[in-house]
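ok so I'm stuck.
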Amino acid sequence: MARKTAAKTRKRPTKKAAEDVNLLHVVHSQFERAAAGLNLAPGLVDSIRICNNVFAFKFPVRVEDEVRIYQGFRAEHSHHRKPLKGGIRFAPHVDADEVKALAALMTFKCAIVNVPFGGSKGAVAIDPRTTPVDVLERVTRRYTFELCHKNFIGPGVNVPAPDMGTGEREMSWIADTYGMMNPADINSFACVTGKPVSQGGIAGRTEATGRGVFYGIREMLTNPTATKKFRLDPGTDGKTFVVQGFGNVGYHGARIMVTEGGMKCVGIGEWDGTISNPKGLDPDRVKAWQQKKGTILGFPRARSVTNPKAFLDIACDVLVPAALENQITLANAHRVKARILAEAANGPTTPGAEKILLRNGVAIIPDIYLNSGGVTVSYFEWTKNISHMRFGRMAKRFEGTRERRSLDAIEEATGINLSADMDALTRGPDEVDLVRSGLEGTMVEAFEEMLDDLMNAKRSRDLRVAAYRVAIAKVAASYEALGIFP
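replied:
not stuck anymore, here's the structure
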């Protein structure tokens, strides 16, 4: 991929300036930048921007011989669609502003991919890496109890999902606790998504956000309008990338980019350092090493650096921040050596950094689009739970039988024996096939909507503003349909 803007045009900041990195303030500034270009009533804009409810509470949990007090949050940003949707984050330094910002991002994510949910988010101030599993279970179940008590959870009210520090295990505890408190609710499994498949989950959910990241990057690199607009060399094959954050999103995104996109992973950044190899890293082998050693550092045939921000210095075609917010800032944006910044995390780029990157010709795929694969497949899981029907159950045998009849006719007409390949050709779609197909179609359609808005803006090269405009317009249409605003 051509990098004519790489070394010559990147500019270092001339002086250090204080930068507001409060995520809520960042989201509001991004929102206002986009809303300014829409012809909406001021009251309507305010209604879309504000967070409707925030439930902040403390609750006790017994830990060995003492009782500890934990801080919990659940924010409901927008009720324009029901139920509300958003993950639960377990992190030691989470606060109300962070949860409100993440809830707002959920509203806009759902809107841009046409998922009929309002935005929400939850959190507990706890470090899951140092907390014993039995304590995590008690905290999760008590947190769920508090949400039930205030009606902040339920299949038609508010549906949590995994986020940083949580996963299938925590979601199964939530579903079990809710079910015990609501024994007559036959839809109780739909109170939360991201569950194990054995407990009402859906195949393909674990990889969903990472797979969505790949689909978004692939669209950027293969859509003719996008490649011309951003002056990119078309195609994914052979393109290099660096991923920062090697948890669920980073790992699955990297794995799929390599195996299905033909791309090359040349660097991985984690909380304790960075590894790199210009010849390429195997994401599966790095993940196995990380699980065995507790770190990516020391991975064979890779250069290890005990600097978490060293990922910024690795030359690549695509940089994928997939960890925390505020990773690329005014102070380090000049170090980015990629043509595309693909925001797999929530809010990884500060406004100051974004100005530098856009000036340096870096194309930014915004988080509210690229990070939406998880909520898209969560919607599939929720509908599966509400309908009480496994995806593909009714269609698989019918489609397989139809295909077999077609192949039998071909055999009879041509004399070609297809029996050896018959089973593979007529097996019909499994649930994971349908989930991946639905996610792919959703990401492609959303990218085209976002790109259409950008092209109508003529000189603009800012996909973030385009994504927000598309999302805000859809939320506004829901509000206007209520008859509240003229």
